[in-house]
Amino acid sequence: MIERIQQMENYYDTLHQWMQSEALELDETIEHKIRALMNYIESGDWLHDYEMDEKGYLPKTLKRGVLSQDGLYNLLSEICEIYNI
Prior knowledge:
The chain has helices spanning 2-20, 28-42, 45-54, 71-83. By secondary structure, the chain is mainly alpha-helical. It is elongated and about 40 Å long.
């Protein structure tokens, strides 16, 4: 679970930085990260990880921006709107 959160956090950070850049080229690497984050939400893994965080089961030192209730959804919504995904 922690490794999954770390990987999704990495994807989230990468996409967030990518959206802030001026060159928004949609390549295979970016598409892979988008799809992985979409699957993370749709599979129920995000909700499970979120609930474990809420219950205090995750280390306090774990970076967890991807588990914010609105952050990931808003980022993916913006990307999907721009690229009609």
